[in-house]
Amino acid sequence: MPTDITVVLGAVLLDLVLGDPRALPHPIVAIGRFISFLEPRLRRNVASERAAGCLLLLVTVGVTYSVTSLMLVLAYLTTPGAALVVGMYLGWVSLAARSLHQESAKVAYALERGDLPAARVALSYIVGRETADLEEPEIVRGAVETVAENTGDGVVAPLFYLVLGGPALALAYKAVNTLDSMVGYKNERYLEFGWASARFDDLANYLPARLTGLLMVLAAPLCGLSGKNAWRIMRRDGRNHSSPNSGFPEAAAAGALGVQLGGANRYFGKIVEKPTIGDASKSLSLEAYHGVVRLMYTSELLLVVAWSGVRYAAKLAG
Predict the structure, then answer these.
(1) First-to-last C-alpha distance (Å) of the chain
(2) Cα 154–161–168 angle (5° rounding)?
(3) How many domains does the structure of the chain reveal?
(4) Domain that holds residue 303
(5) Largest alpha-carbon pair distance within the chain?
């Protein structure tokens, strides 16, 4: 099924208005259960952990793409309108802008009430670091970093693959993303088994992460922020991250907001010093959080507008 503009616009609008459809059958949940089903069986039956992990990646992504394509074909054989509805639904569940905003906003709401304990608890649901002793600036930093990073892999990347190859490719990307979140850890259990999933996730996010940074640079002036500084910091600090990709949206956001991200975090009782991103021209306050949310939505809008413009120009040229 070609990437119909109705499918893309419908998916984006459904996500913006309704958020994550948790009350409905959710393909991402099904993908997670499929991974959990395959993992112990592959570990038992494949001698090499790395080979088992490679097979997990191939089977999960292949089945996701094939099942999604089959659903679209069957819907189209019913009526073209049914294919549009199914396509919009599958595109909708691949996007996470509203969900990201809702979950991170719980942190901001608690801070606005002056309830630090509640803010720490809310932050603990969206970050991996320990949050029990964090003060307000560090809580805000965690929320800003989460929104900036996930604008890449939760908003722009799935939208990029949706416009590139339709719902089947968008959900194949989400399968890669889910694999990385479930098995892509650098610990004893998953170092070899999750190697392929982690590396492929890096590859799948390579272009979208850099596109996200560029979109944030372009979005910054529209949000009352500094596009010039976003560009400068992204070029300077985009690689100041353990991930080969996450640093680009974080650096663009830090530059646009005029804040410093990165630094010390506590994991399992140990302090981990991470490279800093950006300059501390402004304090990490709720203003920074609201600014990064505006950047997220505006970046998504810019991608939709740019793609729609290219499609329209191609139609005129054709």
Answers:
(1) 20
(2) 105
(3) 1
(4) 5-317
(5) 61
